[in-house]
Amino acid sequence: MNPQELFPLHILQRAGRRLLALTGLLAVLALVFGPPASAAVQAPHSATGKTYVIGTDTTFAPFEFRQGGELVGIDMDLLRAIAEKQGFKVEIQSLGFDAALQALQSDQVDGVIAGMSITDERRQVFDFSEPYFDSGVQMAVAETNTDISSYEDLKGKTVAVKRGSEGEAFAKSIAGKYGFTVKPLDQSATMYDDVKAGNSVAVFDDYPVLAYGIAQNNGLKAVTEKERGSSYGFAVNKGNNPELVQAFNTGLAELKASGEYQQILDKYLAAPESAGKSTFWELLTQSLPALLKGLVLTLFATGLSIVIALILGVGFGFLKVSRRVWLRGIATAYVAIFRGTPLLVQAFFFYFGLPQLTGRPMDVLTAGVLTLSLNAGAYMTEIVRGGVQSVDPGQMEASRSLGLGYFKSMQKVVIPQAVKIMTPSFINQFVITLKDSSLLAVIGFAELTYQGQQIYASNFRTGETLLIVAALYFVVITVLIKLSNILDKRFNK
Amino acid sequence: MSKIHVAGLTKSFGSNEVLKGLDVDVAEGEVVCVIGPSGSGKSTFLRCLNKLEDITGGKVVVDGFDLTDPKVDLDKVRQHIGMVFQHFNLFPHMSVLENIMLAPVELKKLSRPQARNKALELLERVGLASKADARPAQLSGGQKQRVAIARALAMSPDIMLFDEATSALDPEMVGEVLQVIRDLAAEGMTMVVVTHEMGFAREVSDRVIFMADGLIVEEGSPESVFGAPRQPRTRDFLAKVL
To answer: Which residue intervals define the domain ABC transporter in the entry (chain B) (predicted)?
Structure first.
């Protein structure tokens, strides 16, 4: 089993409303190499007729979330309405909050709208639009809880907050006064589950998020008025796309004047359509289309990666058994690098780090397949090396003694035997790579796990959704293993 | 001119010198048996004759080709030298017939039908015509070694090297393999045979070489080496094995 399977991906999933520095390495690299040349200030010109790539969070209901596979929410509706008014086109990339900010910094996207608070810290790296939404923090407790209705009731208790969020800042500011403990968690869904499980008694979260969750039967109820909070803004990379900010501001003003702005807000906040608690069967039928779409992408990325990995593995594997020291050195270095670093770091590096170094954006599928295939390739290299070396050296000697050359001997005598030995390991690596592909959810690659996260982040039915996701993986992997074994038996008698 | 000419041959594995300067000439049609205690360097010496081992020092000339010359095409030279190994080293993923046909077909010495006929002929000769389509795993040790000999003969070599060809066999199978080697000797094949079968060495060889500690201690006709060994080491060794 690969060591990187042990990395909990949710830790690096959207960690709330803050800028998460990826790794020290990437930060240093970014400093050393600086922003790409295109970051130079350009003369403002019209946004009309252009297409902009806009990054957003995966799910931050009610600002962005999926409904029947479509991205909807306050952010999405506002952005689309403004784009239509101002005559530009948008291509939305649902990346996750941290990933979207990273993508913006590396010019992978032109702008970000993701329920992002305007802070001084962020102003240093981004240019913001006029605020389009005023948020605030509110406290909620479990539906069944009748003991807690004010901050005073929290004495000696624990409350859940989203790490790095305004809710956390607010809770900490009053924690001393009211005598409660603050427990930071990473996602809204996790916080709500924590409260329902009784680990925390209350949660402090952004009021629109809380309101929407409650309307979705997340099992909580709000018990206090909202506190005054920060404002959300649309952001571009500092100095880039000033015309886009201009267009956003103009469009926003028009929407406010026409009343459309209020309509959009009301649609999600004033009277959120109350969803009756659906059965598991309904959850299954509703989520299956999106999950199957994710599964197809999982299989596609895995299939492509495993083919590339096989080619890499055979190439480097033979370098590894080469008699030349420097050829062996190349292969050893490759294996050491990709086996010696976590897959997650590799994925971040290819998607965010490399574009910052080269100034050339890389789409998420390319980055994902590159990560998986280079990683699996390193393991394949070792499988090939092991396979070739486990063939009795006497076989090579017998072949050479007949006058067959090294490559002919490899091809006719060693490789056919090595393949037979390697096949079970190949199948194993295939399964590992398929499971590893779930880690690509962190760079916003819309595979099966990502689709699952999207679903439970908006319906708050974490356990059931993950069960369906796990079942899909299980079925597919079991079928693939059965299939591989049949092929193995047929060809490796 | 001798078929095999070895002069001052040395071979080291790291700092361990296993051959300490050998001089041997083998004439065409001559059968030379190499005997000696294990670890004496017999097999290493044999493996230097087709350069399965890199040669540390000295000269090995086979069929007029100097094996220490990097310009010599080893694959070409090896086509004229058949080798039989202690552990047979048959290719387990091929049938008996395919094992024998591999080299002639791949090296384009014979067409497939020609190679097939030749292989069947060789199998006939080693008494295994009925096993043509069997897999090596289905054969007994003695049968495997006879197939290995047929495989080595498929390229029509003019020299055959036997590296303890009967050491891994059950006693009752030694005879059938020795018989095949005996027949080859009778046909006038040039052979170097590393063996522990003293009776066979005495019977079949034109010359016997006794090696110990990487050196040739004594050599001569089988009658002289076995009948009247001059060196104490030889006498000591023969006293133990005979």
So the answer is: 4-238
